[in-house]
């Protein structure tokens, strides 16, 4: 009798122990088999800056569309300096509340936002410390101090392994010629690097990190949904950055641009603007490597990455020009692109087939300099002056 009692107690203890260990894994397996999310789920992520005299602005406004079936993640950052109703959008959350901001962003995209997350910068610091170091390439000197926000930025160009505080400083830097657009580009880059770093970590490290930051995040995302995403995207994903379209006024203020193409890019109905294949030819008086590097990052910050930038020293051209080679590309679309990157320049935009003599002269000149274009391409941008 005593022996059978001990066996029974032993079995109960064993089952209880197994339950403690295995129940979380049963739940994870269940979330892998059964998705708690729709095939496509749209997220709004807001990053709040420090509270300064009762004011907290959204330094980050980011939309993510996550497709659980295709493993595609489309991401777009809305510039914090975007003018809405006469004021910058970064004050919209505090003035009008979360629901109003969600409706505003839904109007930009014609898409319903399913989930939201509001975080402050301390969350980024904790995540960076827990899963870091995060490998980051810095392309220019970054130096800036703002004692009111306890922000000190001091980076030299090169490859860096960054943890929380430094990671946050890199993301927040905006005192270069690219301004807010450059900061958006760095946000996208850091998010991609964080995702790549996180996917290399074991689930226990990720769970520990999540527990540390969960109480610091205001969100309607469920734990089961996070588990599902972490497990199903662990073996890889496709990340696409879609630039928010902007237009400038004469004072340099930015406003929403062509939302039609923006919405089509998210719906997959049209070739995304930043997927164009194009070259830039530098026919200015400043044909230096530094100038061309800055030129590259100006375009990249706006979401358009050139195949190559070549100097064009043997010709003296009179006007900024774009030669469009793909007849399916709309000239107005190209015009919108160059206005975003070079708002003060005035481009002549032409189909190359209608100006073959001048176009061939440029190609022959490039070839004589051993600068070759890998066709087919969509267009060629020429800068003068």
UniProtKB/TrEMBL annotation:
Residues 57-198 form the Cell envelope-related transcriptional attenuator domain. The keyword Transmembrane helix applies. The chain crosses the membrane at residues 7-34. InterPro entries: LytR/CpsA/Psr_CW_biosynth, LytR_CpsA_psr. Keywords: Membrane, Transmembrane, Transmembrane helix. Belongs to the LytR/CpsA/Psr (LCP) family. This is Transcriptional regulator.
